[in-house]
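Tutorial sheet, problem 5. The two components below are modelled jointly, 613 residues in total.
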Amino acid sequence: MGQRLKDKVAVVTGAGRGIGKGIALLMGEEGAKVVVNDLGGAFDGTGESKSPADEVVDEIKAKGGQAVANYDSVGSSQGGENIVKTALDSFGRLDILVNNAGILRDRMVFNTTDEEWDAVLKVHLYGTFYCTRPACRVMRNQKGGRIINFSSESGLGSLGQNNYSAAKEGIVGFTRTVARDMGKYGVTCNAIRPRAGTRMTLTEELRAATERKRAAGIVGPAGALDITSLVPEAVAPFVVYLATDQAGNINGYDFMVGGGVISLLNQPEIVRSMTKEGHWTVAEISALAPSFITAELVNPVPPAPAK
Amino acid sequence: MGELLKDKVAIVTGSGRGIGKGIALLMAEEGAKVVVNDLGGAFDGTGSGKAPADEVVEVIKAKGGQAAANYDSVATPQGGENIIKTALDNFGRLDILVNNAGILRDRMVFNMSDQEWDAVLKVHLYGTFYCTRPACRVMRNQRNGRIINFSSSSGLGNLGQANYSAAKEGIIGFTRTVARDMGKYGVTCNAIRPTAATRMTMTDELKAAYERKKAEGLTEDSAILGDLAKLTPEGVAPFVVWLASDESANVNGYDFGLKFGSVGLYSQPKLVNTIVKSAGLWTVDELMTIVPRTLAVGLVNPAPPK
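Model answer (structure tokens):
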């Protein structure tokens, strides 16, 4: 039992299973009082149940920690308020917010339904805002706090995940601005792009594809990680680290975490530019861009050559 | 009068004024038939009017081009469908979609209302999806197309713009995945982070702040802070027009920074610093020791506490 989060109060959304559960348990072990939020739904956001959150609360208590369950959906303004209120009512303060709750509704962009788009945006991006706003009000008064948002590698582009990519890269933009809005109050806000095999990411299709590859002796390209081997518990230690007082200079960044690998991502910056006095003309850009600004850019999914 | 977009049909959302207007006019000059979409509202999204779109259509027609107005809001699925339908009904096809429409509702995150959050997300991020989806259906059948989405440097973090940053960086993520969903059909999707002085960006507060900085000699970047008049919205159009042409087929899933006289390519996120534990999980204690000497070296808190 560590003491790295002694006397701190943490909210972890979507903490009934998977990555969130690992974070809640480790925060409990490190001395934090934990609000275990989970709607208890399926990975596609349907249904609800109290048992996932309750079981994690029981596990924390069984180890001598303090925890309380909350079953609100992050996907509503009132849900976010209730989750933060649970921390205040139960433990009197709020030091750490981990916005981890999430669902998936994969579909090619041209076939995505209004409902598939909206459900993913509401839980991930709206949900992160709905919990962060009331948390910031508390942390601003306390002059201290840690907010850790969950983004995804899918924000870098992922076939069939337009809704998820939009929500998850939106969370990165949100994180960068919350870092700037809240930094002066001693609050930091960072994002994690986890790599882990969970109920949500390990779909039947993905499992089957991985098994086929294994059976065929096909290993991934050099450096590629096999997501089925990445346990969700591996994400927690770095999240706990970001939640400690020691991590005060880390604000507005995003990290990839999976297995034993933790990486810092660069912030986007202009890497090539051309400048002239006055407006470029279309003819000038046509003459110069292909040999400089857009030279050697690779279309990730080029059209098949004409037959 | 160029011919780079000859016979192509383009939609430019929010093209009644500002950056969108500059793109619509220049696309027409390059031979495109243009759907000029504009709800005609104020920069905060309130109100509506047909005049801004109609006036741009008139300018294009007066120069011998072809254009049709559409007044739908991008912020509903039906609005997006109607905008695409306007292109098909008037010109029979759709080659280029420029998702430019936008509004602002700046507020510190702890004071932001539900409505301020939702209005910005709906117009920018939902609106980009609502127009892109029906456009992709058309372009997939045509086996060709160009989608150009408007993001912002605010997606890289900007005080008081949690809603706008979320929407605009969300558009970057969306762009990268649409590029992968649609590339095999000959469609590209890219994003622009423009810097321009428009009705939307040049609020009275911002103008006053720029003038104060200029008077105090605090201009960090003369191209941005030096001379407001130079940041004309028309400066964004030429590169957008080129991206919309057949010449840019290898450019798919990227984002560009544009301001007056300058065109820049942004880096894609990549891992710049990594720690690895080959057996077992990291412990918190190990990270307390190792992270400050490795991953966190040189990281600067952009808004440190006093």
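Marking note: Chain A is about 40% helix and 15% strand. Full credit if you identified this.
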